[in-house]
Amino acid sequence: MCSSNLTSEGVAGPVPWATEVWHFAYGKELRRDPDRAALVGYIRSPGVVRVALVSQPTGAIVRDGWLQATSWWTARPLERLLTDPADWPAVAGATTVGSRPSGRCLARRCGSR
Length: 113
Fold this sequence. Notes:
three-stranded antiparallel beta sheet; disordered C terminus
């Protein structure tokens, strides 16, 4: 059985050429430990956990929301916290890139193809 480690030991380090790196943070304190956030959300809250996509080095929140931590039909809180926001980086990236002029648009403005 193959297992992926998505806890603090499996988090990628800084990328020297990147101006920013995004990571997910979980819970009230926005820590990187989804296991703890899922457990605390299950025990102490009404079954929801805050999840945020955070930009480093600034710490700016790119996107955040409250996700259901428990599910009566699957009882897999960690799986939900990891899969439900899986498209957030793609949506945020597309929005960011879409707001900047592309080389193709600039070339058309200049009259070249």
